[in-house]
Amino acid sequence: MSDAGTSTDTDRPTSQFAWSNMFVKPEDDPRSEGGFDDEVSVLVNYLRDQRLTLELKCAGLDAEQLVRRSVPPSPMSLLGLVRHMAEVERGWFRRTMAGEDAPRIWRTPADPDADFRGAVGDPAVVEEAWAAWREEVAYAERFVTEAPTLDVKGRHGDGEISLRELLVHMIEEYARHNGHADLLRELIDGRVGQ
């Protein structure tokens, strides 16, 4: 690596598609294979699978690898994505849906990209990020489990959003960022797919 979080063409791994460089063998994949019968199960389990995908993309990497940046000037890294998704989970489920006065974890008005910029190669920062993300995911899962219906509404801007729409949005949010995670992981060690 040429300097903190950047790379050159000479230090990039060679991408090869084969089961040997995939994240897990199909029989060991913790994600579901679908087959859900009702709306709640479909939404909850597809979101669960997207969350698991983010974890898989980060598995087995050390702190320095997790903060490897994509392409300048982007501050995006896998650790930045974990921190960002902790903020996203917290914002939607605690503030929007539950109406809590839950301050942001890292982001500030002065630095709206602090979730990405503060992702540094320190094991304590990595541990803090995963702990925050897991706490926010657990909160979101409890909120969904305890909600009487998917029609529950939360305040969003000048309007409202239903829990149903929020769950679809969260699947989309993770799917988009997991695409980023695919590219980041391939840049780090050549692992692709899934």
Features:
51% helix, two-stranded antiparallel sheet, 2 strands, mainly alpha, 6 helices, disordered N terminus, 194 residues
Provide a short characterization of the protein structure.
By secondary structure, the chain is mostly helical. It is 51% helix and 4% strand. It contains 6 helices and 2 strands; from the N terminus they run αααααββα.
- Profile the largest sheet: 2 strands, antiparallel
Strand content: under 5%
Strand order within the widest sheet? 1-2
What is the 3D form? globular
Describe this entry's structure for a reader.
The protein is mainly alpha-helical and 194 residues long. It has 6 helices and 2 strands; from the N terminus they run H-H-H-H-H-E-E-H. It has helices at 39-58, 63-66, 78-97, 114-117, 123-146, 163-189, and strands at 153-156, 159-162. Strands 1-2 form a two-stranded antiparallel ribbon. A hairpin with a 2-residue loop joins strand 1 and strand 2 (159-162). It is globular and about 50 Å long. It starts with 38 loop residues before the first helix and ends in a 5-residue tail after the last helix.
